[in-house]
Amino acid sequence: MTAVPASSATPVLEVDDLTVEFRTPKGVVNAVNGISYEVHRGETVAILGESGSGKSVSVQAVMGILDSPPGFVTNGRVLFEGKDLLTSSAEEQRAVRGPGVSMIFQDALSSLNPVFTVGYQIAEMFRAHRGASRKEAKEAAVELLDRVNIPEARRRANAFPHQFSGGMRQRVMIAMALALDPKLLIADEPTTALDVTVQAQIMQLLKDLQRETGMGLLLITHDLGVVNEVADRVVVMYAGGVVETGTVDEVFADPSHPYTEGLMASIPSVESKGTRLRPIVGTPPDLSRIPSGCSFHPRCPRRVLENAPPGKNCRDDVPLLLPVGVPGRASACHYREEVLGA
Amino acid sequence: MGRYVARRLLLTIPVLIGASFLIFAMVYALPGDPIRALAGDRPLSAAVQAQLRAEYNLDDPLWLQYIKYVGDLVQGDFGTDFSGRDVSETIFQRLPVTAKLALAAVIFEAVIGLVAGILAGIRRGSFFDNLVLISTTLIVSIPVFVLGFVAQFAFGLKLGLFPTSGIGDGWYSYVLPGLVLASLSLAYVARLTRTSLAENLRQDYVRTARAKGLKPSVVIGKHTLRNSMIPVVTFIGADIGALMGGAIVTESIFNIPGLGRAVYDAVLRQEGAVVVGIVTLFVFFYIFFNLLVDVLYALLDPRIRYD
């Protein structure tokens, strides 16, 4: 682990060198290639990346809900409060899901079971993990719905998912995830399917609940605005690997990896009004054929292919995630110091 | 929901009228003269023939015959067959036999089909899955009358496990005919269950259920199965009506004195009143069970609302 944690206490979640591959008939897809990060109590860590960068797969592996086959964790450790979940029994893992770590998903409509009432689905958490009676569980579910600001919670508990609006459904998901006061909440693109005003409400709700409970929040997103607003630290992923990590303020103010630099430059701002948007040229790589050396080098405007110093040829040498700048920051670029200064 | 059911029930009236008229017209269009066929080698005098024709309204045009028939029908008179027996009596006597056969078939269809489908769907690609796929393909591709005779010969005659004919052994007599009658639907139910389960296992809500830390038995047995059963229950329900009508071949093979066998005999004798009465009853059952399925569908899937 290269990034120094903000606090020295045991992190809620520590992911170390996690590697996931998909074995498909067409070959092996290297979805996650040795990523490491940690989340502390009360902290919000954002995993930022494009579609297909492996960010969702990595948290599914953490959660133990990877579809296997075809997905396999081939290396690494996932420490929840110091205990490796990957080597735990299925029973032990199951006991962590819900009371320890819980998760909300992008599409709340398809993620909720269409044939059970939302009250039932929330109550199920108490019944499965705490052996609560039907009545107690139902009461607790109504309280939770009230806590995530669903009006007329008692009546709405008997409604089915399709009878809610998109934002309300995501609140139901949040209520369900928070039922057992988890130490860590993983939110996989929780606002992507919602419209902008609702997005802000949901993010605010998550922030408020985090402040109340002190849980860690691991936020998976491709939305730079959301990261900037709510996250404390950011882990930038590209082609299944971590390219940069640090506090949001530092990374956004002065990126130390050309990919992050490209992301920042692509944000439209008031000053850039009237000028053309600046996308990162090219497309993300096919994860079954990740480029040699630095996986970003075919798209990188700063790549060095000729006359590179020894071990720093972007096409041939794989850059490691190494510290740069202030403690806690790291970048997987051979020329991170130069990029940081630029 | 109540209004929906009432509307659907009202709609059955024109359907029954249309269906019964079509059947009536088809029997009318059959070649040959039923009275002469009845007489056989013994020539009837012209006077007797004329009297019989008048009694069965056979000299009237088709539409008038049909109206007279329906007129009697609404008064509860199903007419008589050529031996003077009330058709309604035949129906009351034979309906329980066909109902028992259909019930036996539905039980086999539901139990064997569901169990095979669920096991195959949970373990796709396993030996059992392939076994189910191969055996259902085999069943679907064999015509029922072939399967019926083979089963009768093998299990009834050679192995002596089941009675070969009739209903003299009570419920046990219905086992083999019930299996034969159920065979095709059983294969469909197994396949439908397997596909539906496999499809639902890929759904997002299954991932959520796992993320909630629920036991695998709850994830599959409650969350996935409840959704997978919606198309299967619909199919089985609609099939009950079809099984009653489809019993004609099976009842003939196993010589079971049910409605199907009665229709078969009546068609051969061109007894219009019997054919129309029983087949219209089949149509009614079919409509009724379809309505039942639609109501059940709304109970199983809360997203369906009819009003």
From TrEMBL, chain A:
Subcellular location: Cell membrane
Lineage start: Bacteria, Bacillati, Actinomycetota, Actinomycetes, Geodermatophilales
InterPro entries: AAA+_ATPase (IPR003593), ABC_Ni/Peptide_Import (IPR050388), ABC_transporter-like_ATP-bd (IPR003439), ABC_transporter-like_CS (IPR017871), Oligopep_ABC_C (IPR013563), P-loop_NTPase (IPR027417)
Gene3D superfamilies tied to this protein: P-loop containing nucleotide triphosphate hydrolases (3.40.50.300)
Protein's membrane topology: Peripheral membrane protein
Organism the protein comes from: Blastococcus xanthinilyticus
A GO cellular-component term linked to this record: plasma membrane
GO biological process per UniProt: peptide transport
Pfam families tied to this protein: ABC_tran, oligo_HPY
Keywords: ATP-binding, Cell membrane, Membrane, Nucleotide-binding, Transport
Protein family: Belongs to the ABC transporter superfamily.
Any one GO molecular function term: ATP hydrolysis activity
Principal location: membrane
Cross-referenced SUPFAM superfamilies: P-loop containing nucleoside triphosphate hydrolases (SSF52540)
Superkingdom: Bacteria
Entry keyword DNA damage: no
Domain ABC transporter span(s) in chain numbering: 13-264
Protein name as annotated: Oligopeptide transport system ATP-binding protein
TrEMBL record, chain B:
TM regions (residue ranges): 9-30, 101-119, 131-151, 171-190, 232-254, 274-300
Subcellular location: Cell membrane
Stretch forming the signal peptide: none
Membrane topology recorded in Swiss-Prot or TrEMBL: Multi-pass membrane protein
Record Pfam families: BPD_transp_1, BPD_transp_1_N
Domain of life: Bacteria
GO cellular component, one term: plasma membrane
GO BP, one annotated term: transmembrane transport
Keyword Repeat included in the entry's annotation: no
Keywords: Cell membrane, Membrane, Transmembrane, Transmembrane helix, Transport
PROSITE patterns, sorted: ABC_TM1 (PS50928)
InterPro entries listed in its UniProt record: BPD_transp_1_N, MetI-like, MetI-like_sf
Occurrences of domain ABC transmembrane type-1 (ranges): 95-297
Protein family per UniProt: Belongs to the binding-protein-dependent transport system permease family.
PANTHER family referenced in this protein's UniProt entry, alphabetically: DIPEPTIDE TRANSPORT SYSTEM PERMEASE PROTEIN DPPB-RELATED, DIPEPTIDE-TRANSPORT INTEGRAL MEMBRANE PROTEIN ABC TRANSPORTER DPPB-RELATED
Name this polypeptide is given: Peptide/nickel transport system permease protein/oligopeptide transport system permease protein
Native source organism of the sequence: Blastococcus xanthinilyticus
